[in-house]
Amino acid sequence: PDSVGELRQEIPADLDRESLAVCRERGFPGGVVCDGYALPYRGASFDLVALFDAIEHIEDDARALGEVARVLRPGGRVVVSVPAYPFLFANNDRVARHCRRYTRATLAAVLARAGLVVERNTHTNVLLFPLILPTVLALKALETLLGIRPDPERTNLTVPLPAILHGLLARVFAAELAVSRRRDWPAGHSILAIARKPG
To answer: Angle at the Cα of 176 (from 133 to 8), degrees rounded to 5?
Structure first.
């Protein structure tokens, strides 16, 4: 903010109007329909841009991050989360229309190409990763060896889970924060990076 007490404004942006309608229902009005290559904001407009599970859907991620760098104020930050490990690219990624998965090195490289300085670069979804990794690899092996064609419209996230299981998984996921606050995790199912615009 430019002054103490200035109102912080959260502006959702998406290609999809239905997604923005969900944002409005959850208390985030004022969404903007746009694509990542041409954000409808003047340069140096924002202190923070958050891209949660977004750039893996964009063909030219470096171009999109360059546009994010344009709208950030000097010293402003971008928070980016992405799915990890290209070798885990599977049906969930195809259904979700992912263009790629990342390593920490490839995410750091694309942020640097956009002129951003990486401050944190850590894996997330770490504690559940020992369960996710063999499951995804087994499903991929079945697809390859047995010629099984997975449903192109459904992912494992389509299966409804009881509320108690949602709560348990959320607590496991949150338990990582005790370590994440102080250091970067070396492995996990996702990656989260924080980068700063110089100046």
So the answer is: 115
